[in-house]
Amino acid sequence: xxxxxxxxxxxxxxxxxxxxxxxxxxxxxxxxxxxxxxxxxxxxxxxxxxxxxxxxxxxxxxxxxxxxxxxxxxxxxxxxxxxxxxxxxxxxxxxxxxxxxxxxxxxxxxxxx
Length: 113
Hints:
Helices cover 78% and strands 9% of the residues. By secondary structure, it is mainly α.
């Protein structure tokens, strides 16, 4: 396998990984938005609140539910930040690979015609 083929394969692999990371980030962002919506509803609530625990609903205090949701939100935010760092690193690697390919293509001797 030539250097060019190796770089092309590497860039393609990193592009696939990047797409996967972007999909994961989108999914986590949607889940975080659901938690934000739930937190808004908890704030509006004046009645007793229930939380699903397996197949049953258990009555919980507003503060307990709010604390649980805020912890989950923090987890999602941390995961999203981690994915963003990976996304940036991969995007930079892909750009470097593309630059290397461009240089190789520009340096390749032109066929005599």
